[in-house]
Model the fold of this input.
Amino acid sequence: MATRIADLPAAARPREKLLARGTQALADAELVAIVLRTGVRGQSAIDLAADLLDRFGGLHGLLHAPAGQLRSVKGLGAAKYAEIAAVLELARRALRESMTQQPVFDSPTAVRDYLRLWLAPQPVEIFAVLFLNHQHRLIAAEELSRGTLAQTSVYPREIVKAALQHNAGALILAHNHPSGLAEPSAADRALTQTLQSALALVDVRVLDHLVVTRQEVFSFAERGLL
Done:
């Protein structure tokens, strides 16, 4: 029979441990247990959290797991799924907020983390754009195209139109590769050049094009492809 959290010494209970020693003192399973709040029949919240982390390959895998996979886990009902989804959305919004308050190049990690939380779990390829003002602070983040597992259709005219509507001075292009391979295809490279040329005509700079997978983010700018 699983040990209930209520039966643990107070110092070993995740919530009390967090309040007494801070978040850094907790293991991943303990943090997830706090989000889950309760366990299921035969498993405490900590046991369920540990099972989820093992099933999805750690905290990163859990946070990037597709909604369908999460909801299919026995014992992870609608309420617990909603709690995990809410935490992920709070993380995304916090990262997005940070990009509106300071230039994106002051927090490049936030840009990558935001895009990974947004795009990496998607089961099909999505093309998104971060529209920036002339100080390179985020104005808006929009999905411009949604495709299949292998490709999506992107129309330069639509991206130029959206950039003008937002009065953007620059932007960052991004799309995911559900295959898990971050290396851009020849089509990705050609599209980037086309968009860069089209946007230059309206004085909007393409600062980067990021290809997102669950494991990594490929940067055109870092590889000298822009």
Remarks:
- Residues 7-89 form one domain.
- The longest strand covers residues 138-146.
